[in-house]
Amino acid sequence: MQPQKPPSLWVDNNHAIVRRGMVACLQQAGFVIRGESAGLAPTPVVGRLDVLLFESEGTALRRAVRLVAGSPTRLVATVRIASEQQVREIVDAGVAAVLPHDGLTPESLVANVRAVVAGAVTLPGDLLVRLLTHVTRTASLGPAALNARERSVLRLLAEGLDTRGIAEDLRFSERTVKNVVHDVLTKLNCRTRAQAVALATREGTI
């Protein structure tokens, strides 16, 4: 068996000192940094990237989403001021993690990026609360809307497990887990896993 390749990232941030600090932390943790940018210039090359870590300011979110469209590269957004509208737009766009600059530490940066590489979706508690205020309510949500298997999968999603971790915990195939997640998103009228977790948490389903 060949050794697993270390995850590769591109780091984007408008402030050189912050950017280089992130790069140093991630390199020390074993990540491969493929490039750096400020305001997504130069344009990140996503072909070999596991994660594009970018600063969500101005039009950066839309540009980052377009860059990774059709690729397996996952997005991690850093934000300076996380307004409710900004959090909503970021999560709706399918970003896997939102990291506020305020309170971001080397340890939390590395832990969140590792979780994203593993397939998880991560949101800090305060941002999850903001997301709860905008997630669409559905009349069918409740104990009768989700079966026991769907609630189990959703509960493990809320704990930060990725598809493989859920499959191992519940002794399902990864394909089954993906199908269950799809059914959950459909029933809850949610576009992303983070939305589903937020809605189910607010409604007391998990």
From TrEMBL:
Keywords: DNA-binding, Transcription, Transcription regulation. Residues 139-204 form the HTH luxR-type domain. The keyword Transcription applies. It holds the Pfam family GerE. InterPro entries: Sig_transdc_resp-reg_C-effctor, Tscrpt_reg_LuxR_C, WalR-like. It comes from the Bacteria. PANTHER family: TRANSCRIPTIONAL REGULATORY PROTEIN NARL-RELATED (PTHR43214:SF24), TWO-COMPONENT RESPONSE REGULATOR (PTHR43214). This is Response regulator transcription factor. It comes from Plantactinospora sonchi.
